[in-house]
User: Fold DUF2971 domain-containing protein from Alteromonas naphthalenivorans.
Amino acid sequence: MQREIDPLILQFADEHKTAHQMGEDGLFRYSFYSKEYASRHAALFTDGLLYHNNPESFNDPFDCKFHLRWPDPLIDNDDLKGFVSDINFMNELYKERGVELPSRSIESVLSDENIREALRNAIAGEYEQTRVCCFTSENDNPLFWSHYANSHKGYCVRFEVTNNPTSVLHNARKIVYSEDYPTITFPIMTKVVKALIPLFRKSEEWDYEGEYRSIFSPHWVNQLEHNGESLLLTNDNITDVYFGLKMTEEDKQDIVQLITNGPFNPRLWHVKTHPSQYKLDFETYKP
Assistant:
């Protein structure tokens, strides 16, 4: 008998489609370049490791943040049932560890600020351990080159998007831009897909970025191979590397050498300005 898929999972998958489902054949990631972080660049081009940031380092202070809505025992019947479901789930976990929690009424648990704070911190702690890598579908956006590639002193990488489910890029999902602040309702522990929503939602002010995201956490099960900070690009391919308009020749050669030592064979490009339009063009770069 086929197991029915949770409607929440289907809704999430529909709202946050993969790059492949959106018809993308490639995604782009911009980066600054610094010799101080040579190991980070080598990890990508030579070792095939795609670094995922901690959200705390992002430039949007609302990124991956959430509002936890507590049920009102008088009116939020479904949320209250969800809260009870989570409490029972927690009790079972503690029992398995040989710990018997004291019996308390739901009302007293809901009104206990210590419990509320502990639960909020536990959820926030999960987000703090989550790693995120951001992509876009554009390689010629002047704002991206200015903001994320150190004013054209950095570079941009194109990753191929395939239908291989073990590919990092295959699993990158679309951000939804909304003025509705991410609100998490109970149950959470028995409906963990809810916790993914803040990771894939941003304010409408960021809509111009057209962002996709790859995420993982070191302690999740059934996920792609990683080293704690980066996912392995075993089943992915870097097809193109674009050098910024102001990137020095020395820095370009550094990247070329890293690529030469690695598993990828991308096309190389140099950014230039269009002579009569506010537009960026690309010309083949020959080392």
Summary: The chain is about 30% helix and 20% strand. The chain has two domains: 7-58+131-175+210-284, 65-129+181-203.
